[in-house]
Amino acid sequence: MKKTIVSLAAMMFMGIAMNAQTENILFIEDCGTGPYKAEMVSDESLPTHTIYRPQDIDAAVKAQGKLPVILYANGACVNNNVEMRYLLNEVASYGYIAIAIGPYDERDVNEQWKGVLKSAYPSTKEICMLANGEIVTPPTAEEIAARQAAEQARREAAAKAAASQKKSKKNAAPQPAPFRTYPKQMLEAMDWITEQNANPASEYYHCIDLDNVVAMGQSCGGAQTLAIAYDPRVKTVVMLNTGIGDMEMQGATKSALENLHTPIFYLIGGPVDVAYGNSAKDFERINHLPIVMINTLDGHSGTYYETHGGPYAVAVRKWLDWQLKGKISNSAFFLDDDVLKAFYPNWTVVRKNW
Length: 354
Fold this sequence. Notes:
Elements lengths: L7 H7 L7 E5 L11 E6 L5 E6 L2 H8 L2 E7 L11 H8 L4 E5 L7 H11 L8 E2 L5 E2 L4 H27 L16 H15 L9 E11 L1 H9 L7 E5 L23 E5 L7 H10 L5 E5 L14 H16 L5 H5 L1 H7 L4 E5 L2
Parallel strand pairs: 4-5, 4-8, 8-9, 9-10, 10-11
Antiparallel strand pairs: 1-2, 2-3, 3-5, 6-7, 11-12
Helix pairs in contact: 3-9
């Protein structure tokens, strides 16, 4: 694949768009189970994002056609996509390009997930096994008590600091922004890949299926997804462990549901998922387009820490293959209760407007 390296100064002088230039490459697990071994890369021309893609883009395009696009926003709206690394890599190995908010980051995803699972262990699961085979058990009574004590101490310290600042506002330290990311970064990624697809000097030239784009987010990232899902370039929406309900977050409110114009898929972790109530409200309110909601017993953390992203990656890929690649046979997974039960007996599904 042809690459042209253009310095920033030269780019500004010539007034042309910067060509894609891969800087770092990381191989996740065994590069996915799909027909196209995947890789995670950074690009000098898009330093705010990470890209998950087939290693041999040309071969993937020759075999299946142009690559559909995944625009992804992170849980907690954080500025890294480490926790979704297994799922995004797995889906990319089936012939997708995923552009996730957050710069390239080589931290150990299993170490990240150990902390997450310990702090919010799903009560519906006896054990959680990481992709490396390590078992994370529920926190002990002592660990829970210590965490509660630490949280109480944090709240008391915050209240004391707030009272002190109220007495002397001019000496109060500026408060940091609650989030380091913003919804428009999803559209910035879309603009970038559109430019690369049109640039003869780019490795993505005429390799991207711009007519088949999904906006997808987990938890807080779901609010960012709703905030930009009005964009006509978005063909479907995937909401992972998320729902706006009656909240206002990241520029999205329940009114954002009215701007949806594509089929939408909610994948929720059941009653122990903190997003359960909000997602149920969303389902009730969306009456103008097709919607499917699946509930599992996995809580807010889904199965993203499992090998290849676990069953959640399977469900996401099946939805995308149906919605973006036209694989109609996959519709049975979402529209036929018996088919879903054959895959995952403990999952439940509701749907309407099909």
